[in-house]
Inverse folding.
């Protein structure tokens, strides 16, 4: 799968949603966080009139995170129901969640929620939102996000999206789904391979390489109006697009001069500039969180290792030293952690490196891992692996304690990328 890290194709196509997928992802969670916060969640009042049950979605989100212990109240409570917080504290809950769902005259739903702190005997949060029938899952995810943030101090990521590639027979599909694997939609169907989708920082565009012209060409696709721009169509391989944090530029790997080297280009395809110039393979560039550096994979030391250089080019410093084969660098949103795939004793596994201390942590126990991608809050990493000789997706917390497996019966799943926070 990764024997030739520099020959992997990078071709992605996102032409707008063209149909519903035939199967949702199935999520299985194991492990819990170092500490779990006990939260009582009451059934939302009148939610049975809605096509989606808010309570169940919120519970599933929080349980999947691994950091909450859900206490079922056994009853229905709206945001206006009088409560005795001391009583809930006595039941072992540190927080209580209540809410309601009301159908409006125009067919939309008014979803309200309230979060209370039983320890401090106070209100922590609460809000109302209006959602159409097709947006009720998103409304529930936003409630779970708020609970996660108020109780952990870290922004929730349940209302974000993921993208991945499914292969079924001779067909490749680029699919987009909610972070929990639900609400799957097909962005592209193709008889050509599709891998390595790359979200823009604002979540409105996808960079990709398509082989539709029988050669690799880099495009940027606007997902709102379906317009696309050719970013790189040079002689040789045009591959590995990734975005700068401000969305103004992309880093690429091009072989226009013979050897694959790292380049940067403006998001409209102008201003191409070469950053590396070696007799080796320089590929898989990734901007640092602050946009000041580019991390990339190079074989200049004899085997693939990860290096870092200024985003304007210049001398590069080697970053990975453990193991003889390290590829696919991905930076955490806070810039403190590097995720990558390392081959050791014949196993391709996911590792995380604390860039300040140099401490390394193996996060997976499988043997054919690839394509790591951080959640936008930096607390989880999604990656592709194999289960029973079929491609599947996995999610692991950065401390390795919480693990999830996302599978489908519709085919192999590869090339995950976790989208940004949405406004």
């Amino acid at each position: 799968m990764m024997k030739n890290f520099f020959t992997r194709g990078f071709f992605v196509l996102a032409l707008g949603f063209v149909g519903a997928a035939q199967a949702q992802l199935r999520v299985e969670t194991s492990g819990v966080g170092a500490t779990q916060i006990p939260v009582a969640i009451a059934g939302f009042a009148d939610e049975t009139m809605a096509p989606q049950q808010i309570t169940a979605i919120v519970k599933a989100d929080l349980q999947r995170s691994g950091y909450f212990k859900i206490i079922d109240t056994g009853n229905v409570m709206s945001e206006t129901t009088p409560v005795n917080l001391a009583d809930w504290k006595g039941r072992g809950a540190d927080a209580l969640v209540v809410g309601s769902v009301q159908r409006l005259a125009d067919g939309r739903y008014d979803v309200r929620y309230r979060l209370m702190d039983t320890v401090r005997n106070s209100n922590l949060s609460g809000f109302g939102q209006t959602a159409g029938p097709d947006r009720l899952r998103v409304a529930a995810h936003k409630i779970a996000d708020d609970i996660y943030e108020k109780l952990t101090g870290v922004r929730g990521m349940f209302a974000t999206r993921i993208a991945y590639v499914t292969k079924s027979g001779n067909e490749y599909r680029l699919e987009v789904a909610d972070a929990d694997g639900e609400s799957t939609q097909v962005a592209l169907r193709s008889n050509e391979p599709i891998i390595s989708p790359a979200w823009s920082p604002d979540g409105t565009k996808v960079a990709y390489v398509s082989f539709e012209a029988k050669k690799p060409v880099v495009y940027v696709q606007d997902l709102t109006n379906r317009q696309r721009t050719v970013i790189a169509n040079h002689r040789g391989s045009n591959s590995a697009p990734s975005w700068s944090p401000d969305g103004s530029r992309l880093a690429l790997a091009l072989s226009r001069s013979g050897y694959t080297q790292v380049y940067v280009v403006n998001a409209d395809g102008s201003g191409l500039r070469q950053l590396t110039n070696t007799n080796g393979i320089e590929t898989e560039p990734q901007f640092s969180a602050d946009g000041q550096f580019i991390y990339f994979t190079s074989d200049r030391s004899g085997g693939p290792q990860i290096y870092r250089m200024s985003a304007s080019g210049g001398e590069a410093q080697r970053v990975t030293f453990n193991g003889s084969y390290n590829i696919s660098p991905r930076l955490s949103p806070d810039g403190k952690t590097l995720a990558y795939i390392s081959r050791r004793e014949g196993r391709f596994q996911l590792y995380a490196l604390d860039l300040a201390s140099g401490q390394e942590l193996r996060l997976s126990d499988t043997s054919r891992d690839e394509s790591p991608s951080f959640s936008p809050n930096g607390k989880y990493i999604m990656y592709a692996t194999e289960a029973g000789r079929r491609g599947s997706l996995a999610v692991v917390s950065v401390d390795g304690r919480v693990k999830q497996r996302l599978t489908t019966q519709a085919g192999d799943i590869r090339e995950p990328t976790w989208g940004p926070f949405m406004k």
The chain has two domains: 30-152, 160-418. The longest strand covers residues 122-131. Residues 136-152 form the longest helix (17 residues).
